[in-house]
Design brief:
two-stranded antiparallel sheet; 2 strands
């Protein structure tokens, strides 16, 4: 997995640990191997949580676009 993402095994392990702590992935032990599965339900919870900020960001980015367009037109 580390080779696929051009990072060290330690870095991949650290990312997996964070994803597991956040319950975004679920481990499944099979002998000496551990298989991780995506937890779509938890991702949905995260999506609902972040949705409250998404609208605010969109409004602010639209205002920034308008401001930059106005500045550009003045030049």
């Amino acid at each position: 997995m580390a080779e696929k993402f051009d990072m060290s095994r330690q870095a991949v392990s650290k990312h997996i640990k964070v994803l597991h702590e956040c319950e975004l992935i679920k481990p499944e032990q099979s002998g000496r191997e551990i298989y991780y599965h995506f937890n779509a339900k938890k991702m949905q919870e995260f999506d609902h949580w972040i949705a409250q900020f998404r609208q605010k960001w969109e409004i602010q980015f639209n205002q920034l676009d308008e401001l930059l367009s106005t500045i550009k037109d003045k030049k």
